[in-house]
Amino acid sequence: MNHYLDTNRANWNDRASAHATRVGGLGYDIQRYIDDPALLSDVARFDRERLGDIAGLRAVHLQCHIGTDTLSLARLGARVTGLDFSPVAVAEARALVRDASAGSGAGTDIRAGTVDFLESDVYDAASVLEPASFDLVYTGIGALCWLPRIDTWAQVVARLLKPGGRLFIREGHPILWTMDETESDDLHLRFSYFEQAEPLEWDDDSSYVATDRPLTATKTYEWNHGLGEIVTALLDAGLVLTMLVEHDSVPWEALPGQMVQRPDGEYALGARAGVAPLSYTIQAVKPA
């Protein structure tokens, strides 16, 4: 298992530096967050109403990558800790928050929120952070597919939440992860919908956003988790499901040649519009 983890970490170290470029139109185009102090990430903005008022909440953003969603939560008033297993991603996230705060004289203060970052594997989060101390555990899109066991993740979430606290996650739908993105003539279900012991192995020098160079650490390992497996894992961890919304769009062109971009930046199926869910939002609460 360490081989899978180390290989994925090398890939995400490589991606983090490419995604954090300040060249406009490449990577996450992060200069926008520095130039516009009110800007929210596409992921955070999509679920803004479902997320509700988070001002003053203590939040942890698991698998935070370079911190654009983390910064967005802080701009909504939360006190946020971003956690990621990539040291390069953590360094880039700190740099983003530092530069986004420059000129305000507030250090790392973003409006009413404060941001810090911690390097750790997500499975170790409840060991490096204070258990039962968070009002909100947040996870953005494209995170769960890197985890071999969804039940272990759910137990970590439950340990981090204080009584009455909640998990909020938007993620790519497991039906999407079964589709072969290299086939552009139609939807092709090729990969397992359900969690498997052995991962899918990929070797690709590109990323899901445009970059100014190919990746050099190209191998990755991924696991799918069925929606029922995810919900059951949360229930088994003692959480109460309070929201499950399936969406017909995702924030990137997941199936090239088969998607149309909407005015809000989301991508939806074109000719096959509405035939499959592409992402979902879940909220679950730890009983008081």
Automatic annotation (TrEMBL):
One of its GO terms (biological process) is methylation. Signal peptide: none annotated. CDD domains: AdoMet_MTases. Residues 64-169 form the Methyltransferase type domain. The keyword Transferase applies. The keyword Methyltransferase applies. Keywords: Methyltransferase, Transferase. GO terms for molecular function: S-adenosylmethionine-dependent methyltransferase activity. Gene3D superfamilies: Vaccinia Virus protein VP39 (3.40.50.150). InterPro entries: Methyltransf_11, SAM-dependent_MTases_sf. This is Methyltransferase domain-containing protein. The lineage of its organism: Bacteria, Bacillati, Actinomycetota, Actinomycetes, Micrococcales.
